[in-house]
Amino acid sequence: MKLFAPFDIFIAIFIIGAFVIVGAGLKPALAPQNIDKFIIFADGEKIEIPLSVDTTIIRNSVKIVLQNQTAQFVKSECRNQICTSIGVISSGQIVCVPNRVMVSVHRRPVRAGFKPAPTKMPRIDVYAN
Question: CA-to-CA distance for 50 and 69, rounded, in angstroms?
Fold first, then answer.
């Protein structure tokens, strides 16, 4: 009596191969990414800008100022000016619906109770003469 039939070995190799292929595909998604960024959606286009960059962008007649890791709609040609009245944001989103422009501020989440690892200082002995 055989323990495995030839077809059983084929199935085992197929399953192991599937795990290897799926695992290889997940590695880039799980790799650390720079998540501290502005994401601007306008004209069906997605623009990603690091939070460290200070710049001014004009899209669909909306002037967006990105400065000191904050975003603000400064000027818009829409009727109600709701987007410009929101002011400066450092997290979340601002949307100008009539002009179809959205700015989103993405920051790396900070875990509750997270403390950076302590740095070990060398011991310095001071002797007075």
Answer: 9
